[in-house]
Amino acid sequence: MNSLSTYYHTQRAPISLILYAVAGMLFCLGWFTRDQPPQPFLNLIFTSVGLIISVIAASFHYLTVADEIDRLRIRFGPLPLFHRTILYENILSVEVDRTTIIEGWGIHLSPRGGWVWNLWGRDCIVLNLKKGTLRVGSDDVENLAAFVKSRISLNEDE
Question: Which of 54, 63, 69, 128 lies at a C-alpha separation of 20 to 30 Å from 25?
């Protein structure tokens, strides 16, 4: 890759469709129980949980990894509640790996150390940073790892 290469990739997760369906069912239950005794709060509970699940589904519908010249941006969306940027100068090395079943999906600490940002599947890259480790899930790990390696080598040459 030359110094003008960029990277932009979006991975979509089918699990968000399931979450949207569950939220829709909870909204329907909230609607149908709005006047049902003896639980006046039942409608509020169904609607509130449905709203929370809708926000989670919209926050984790896809994962985009993009080059921003001097940094790598990792962003869940379309509701942009969770995002992170890493300066290329803070990346010591990158390698292709797989998350364990225990590490699963989402944003959390890994039992192996560092953070996991994964949406779907087990393929990931491991970014060994100056301060910690970050596993980033992707369905395009080979290209992502090659791109980050090219950016790291550009920083070393400067």
Answer: 63
